[in-house]
Amino acid sequence: MERQEFGIQGDRIAKSAFDMALRQFNDAADKLGLDDDLRQILSSCKRELTVHFPVRMDDGTVKVFTGYRVQHNYSRGPGKGGIRYHPQVDLEEVKALAMWMTWKCAVVGIPYGGAKGGVICDPKSMSMGELERMTRRYTTEISLLIGPERDIPAPDVNTTPQVMAWLMDTYSMHKGYSVPAVVTGKPLSIGGSEGRNEATAKGCHFCIREACKVLGMDFKRSTAVIQGFGNAGAASARFLHDDGAKVVAVSDSRGGVYNPSGLNPHDVIRYKQETGSVVGFPKTERVSNEEILELECDILVPAALERQLTEKNAPRIKAKLIAEDANGPTTPEADEILTAKGALIIPDILANAGGVTVSYFEWVQDLMALFWTPDEINAKLEQIMVRSFRDVKKTADDYGVNMRVAANMLAIKRVAEATRVRGMYP
């Protein structure tokens, strides 16, 4: 008998980020033989909150913003997930990101469920005062869902440690006392953790090194391309360069730069700080964010937004190793094409799980009021990422599937078991 699909038909092209997440879920659930009851539970988000709130702008006018907070699953612990500020944020995207957070936490063995939030806005056109007022009002609107034992936000696209500080302070003002564990990714001065800002890229780097061993690739003779030069992308470029790889191209929202002889990411970072973009960096050829994905290279690191690798450009992707430092950068259709070409994809729920792992460390440290050194943080992170990569690779080999399906299988199996053991209330 043909099995039942939940949320999306198996032969339908994913039209939204949540469709894509559901298709990935169903592919892994098929391999696991997951029963229909658990499929229904795990393919649904537990809570979806949409808020519309007014903010007074610097010119005295009032603008109404729309924001979201979605909680996907709490079977393994409190919700965990970032908040993004972006003009293209929508509910379907936030639902997908919340689901991916559930699997991300499970694949690295962290006792969290998945959540995500966002506000539809253009933060680059807003002043610091406007951002602060918007953040504090948004925090107030979602405060009925968040808390150190319930749902712990973190930075994401266009949100920073300062934004997290405003969020923590607003929540604390409502409580009447300081609650540092309500949010992670905070400044060190108010309970942040050493190593948090670079954790996503650091975790990805540990996975890339392990993947090079699997492929028999000489890391120090490899070439790398990074799409996206925000916090994660810039740090990834720097770690690859410092460890001996040749970074030949990087890009940000305005475009990219390419030099087959190699770039020094440290210099590119300084240039972007001075000019606002990597575009125009000396002795480079300008490339678009679409073109950069198709350059000749060994390692490709998508570190921007989702749905960058699609069925349209996948046939032209030349990288042997793709490490997803962004969430959802590869569509299911592109996955099939790239896998057939022999590329090894380190999926997002594994590749960029370093951020949530060190967020977990920060949360634990805040609850204990006892903090670890940078060396202790990095040692713990490396141990978890290397173990998780090897667990996923073993699952891939045991079931004869690619790394994405294997990562989802491992994560879904863990969440399904927790859901089954806890039972259904009432």
Could you outline the blueprint of secondary structure elements for this entry?
Elements: H1 17-32, H2 36-42, E1 47-56, E2 62-73, E3 79-86, H3 91-107, E4 113-120, H4 128-142, E5 151-155, H5 161-175, H6 199-215, E6 223-227, H7 231-242, E7 246-252, E8 255-263, H8 265-275, E9 285-287, E10 299-302, E11 321-323, H9 332-340, E12 344-346, H10 348-351, H11 354-368, H12 374-399, H13 403-422
How would you characterize this protein structure?
The protein is an alpha/beta fold. Among the domains are: 43-180, Rossmann fold; 199-346, NAD(P)-binding Rossmann-like Domain (Rossmann fold). The protein is built from 13 helices and twelve strands. It has helices at residues 17-32, 36-42, 91-107, 128-142, 161-175, 199-215, 231-242, 265-275, 332-340, 348-351, 354-368, 374-399, 403-422; strands spanning 47-56, 62-73, 79-86, 113-120, 151-155, 223-227, 246-252, 255-263, 285-287, 299-302, 321-323, 344-346. The strands form two sheets. Strands 9-8-7-6-10-11-12 form a seven-stranded mixed beta sheet, sandwiched between helices. A five-stranded mixed beta sheet has the order 1-2-4-3-5. The two termini are 31 Å apart. The relative contact order is 0.13.
